[in-house]
Amino acid sequence: MDYLQTIIMGFVQGLSEFLPISSSAHLVLASAFYKMLSGVNLAQLTDHSVQEVFLDIMLHLGTLVAVVIYFREKLWNILKSFLVSIKNRDFSSSDTKLGIYIIVGTFITSVVGLLLNDYAEALVFMPHIVAVLLIGTGSLLLFAEFFSDKIKDKVQNINFPSAILISIAQGIAVFPGFSRSGLTIATGLLTKHTRKEAAEFSFILSVPIIFGASMVYPFLKIDFSQFLGFDWGAIIAGTIVSAISGYLCIKYFMMFLSKFSLRIFGYYCLLIGLVSLFIFRNLFFIA
After folding, report:
1. Strand (E) or helix (H) holding 283
2. Which of 14, 50, 8 has the alpha carbon at shortest distance from 29?
3. 9 has a pLDDT exceeding 90
4. How far, in Å, CA of 60 to CA of 239, rounded?
5. Of 18, 83, 135, 243, which has the fewest Cβ atoms less than 10 A away?
6. What pLDDT, in 10s, does the model give residues 115-136?
7. How far apart are CA 79 and CA 194, in angstroms?
8. How many CB atoms lie within 10 A of CB 228?
9. Exposed/middle/buried for residue 281 (C-beta within 10 Å: 0-12, 13-18, 19+)
10. In this model, does residue 64 exceed pLDDT 70?
11. What percent of the chain has pLDDT over 70?
């Protein structure tokens, strides 16, 4: 691992975490491409170190900082409204309901994610399988846009059934290649919400999950002695890049959603998935 690799991966993470193109897929594919260009044997592309896994966590933490800063007013209003509702025992306000949906949704996502996590971790360093799942993300985005175009009367606010389905989609997105924002926004469209509303709920719902994973995983699966051997300069550089690029991505993506559809991202996922599948096709035959 070096500075160039972590900065590239930080930039890729920041751009792809909030765009519906699967940040985890791009991290896997970018790392695999980098190793290939560095002369790593094809059979060794599935090898990985604890430091690489930790870098992935830190890059996600960087994008968490980005989403908290961008939605700071909304998050504060939700928290304040929720605390006032507890005091007054009145949970009827829209911000309070949104807070409840986030709490329930986080629980559902955690359960689904934990059930699928072992299978997902086995795929993290299998770029050929990730490419297949990325093709699935692209197909879902195109179908969701097709369905959404047929709906004339959109549901104005996120409701409880929609929140449940979006949370399940977020849990399934633990698989690299299944875009978290892609699956959640597509689910929002399929439950008759607007792109912008679905995206906003998707991003806010990601906050507790990313925070929990970033805080819990290192202490459960990494020995303290391993932390001492990490290249912290490179890791911090990548994290800062992911935070900055993530913030800019959210800002302009929300502007994009108010005017355009997600089809371009669907086609992009199909293209990258097919190209990657062709490049790494021989991995299917390596035990």
Report:
1. none
2. 8
3. no
4. 8
5. 83
6. 998 888 887 778 889 999 999 9
7. 24
8. 8
9. exposed
10. yes
11. 91
57: its two tokens: 């966590």
The CA-based dihedral angle spanning residues 274, 129, 198, 13, taken in that order and rounded to the nearest 10 degrees:
-90
**Both tokens of residue 268?**
């992009």
Q: Are 37 and 136 in contact (CB under 8 A)?
A: no
Q: pLDDT averaged over the chain?
A: 88
Q: What is the pLDDT of residue 31?
A: 75
Alpha carbon distance 204, 18 (integer Å):
11
What is the C-alpha to C-alpha distance for residues 19 and 87, in angstroms, rounded to an integer?
38
Full-model pTM? 0.87
| Residues of the domain holding 90 | 3-285
Domains of the chain: total? 1
- Taken as a whole, the chain contains a residue count of 287
Neighbours of 74 (CB within 10 A): 14
**pLDDT surpasses 90 at 181:** yes
| Residue found under tokens 């900082």 | 65
Alpha-carbon gap, residue 9 to 57, rounded angstroms: 12
Burial state string for 101-136 with b = 16 or more CB within 10 A and e = fewer than 16 = bbeebbebbbebbeebbeebeebbbbbbbbbbbbbb
Query: Rounded to whole angstroms, how far apart are CA atoms 264 and 146?
Result: 13
Q: Contact, 235 vs 53, CB < 8 A? A: no
Q: How many Å apart are CA 48 and CA 174, to the nearest integer?
A: 18
- Quick one: DSSP state of residue 175? S
- Look at residue 222 and tell me whether its pLDDT is greater than 80: no
Q: Is 208 helix (H, G, I), strand (E, B) or coil?
A: helix
